User: Fold these one by one.
Assistant:
Number 1:
Amino acid sequence: MPVGYLQLFPGGLAPDSSGSGNNAAALSYEVSGAAQGTNSPKAAQMKLLFDAATDEHWLFQFQIPGDYGSGGTLRGRFKMASATSGNIQMKGGQVTSVDSSTDDDALAFGTADLSSVVVVPGTQGQVKEFTIALTDANRAANRKSLIFVGRNADAGGTDDDATGDLELLALAFEYTTT
């Protein structure tokens, strides 16, 4: 079966900081320290900074693609601001409006889905990947959807013990097409 991708980041919006766990990740802009090529701009990128001690999140709102068949995985790329050892764990969730009878003002995320524990890169600036299998049961083609992603900073133990910010560089919604 073919696989489809919907690019989520850069983009999205911050939670409103009301209530427990509604802290927003910090949106940042990074300019490369490498030399600029002739007649080309300096490389620059947006990134989301997720704290090591406080749960922070970012939200994405979109319509599920019309060729959606099944599945639903968040696939992200990150690097660490300073840590070169330890583990991270990401969390995410999805809530979907079923149809025109759904009270869209009352949508609520269920328990977060978790990535596997990922060992941070041993060299600062190197990029690694994480995936989160989403468990929302109402996912279907052309439905409005809301997704969140965050770092599981309060996991405790060795699930997420890397120090410093996690820098999210890219995030996509992966699915099987029809």
Note: Residues 20 and 55 are 9 Å apart (CA to CA).
Number 2:
Amino acid sequence: MTDPSIADGIERPLDRRVIALDRTIGMVVTALLALPSFVFVVFVAAVGASGGRALPVLASLALLGGWAAAAVALGTFTYLWPAVVYRHASYRVDAQGIEIRQGVYWRRILNIPRSRVQHTDVSQGPVERKYGLGTLVIYTAGTDHARVALSGLDYATAVRIRQHLLPGEASDAV
């Protein structure tokens, strides 16, 4: 038996909490990239400035300024980009299966009929768990797109979609 509130054929956006999740992950990655590069830049600047001449001191300051600009640009990008991705991602579940729409520049629409679904998983990493989100993974028959992941779903919604996609007694799935 299918859940009518899930398989209603309405195109739905991902959960809005995915924006905060992606921003958190992006800021962690930014910090992991910025800290070692800062240590390297400070080391290079210190070696360059140790000569006592004016040009190496100016070059060292320019290097530090360039690092700061790059770190701010990366931080700004990782803060703004998740909202853009969110606006271009959606899914629709109906009695026949699921349709997933993703992509900002290269858009992709995947239609997965229930008859092609072999099995499904719902996973939840530690950061996803903090935000109450999960990832639905659909494994299909065939080679192209044999594993399709839809992240950014409310965990309970992902479980309900998983239940809907699983073959039932009246299903034509193998």
Note: The chain has two domains: 18-86, 91-165.
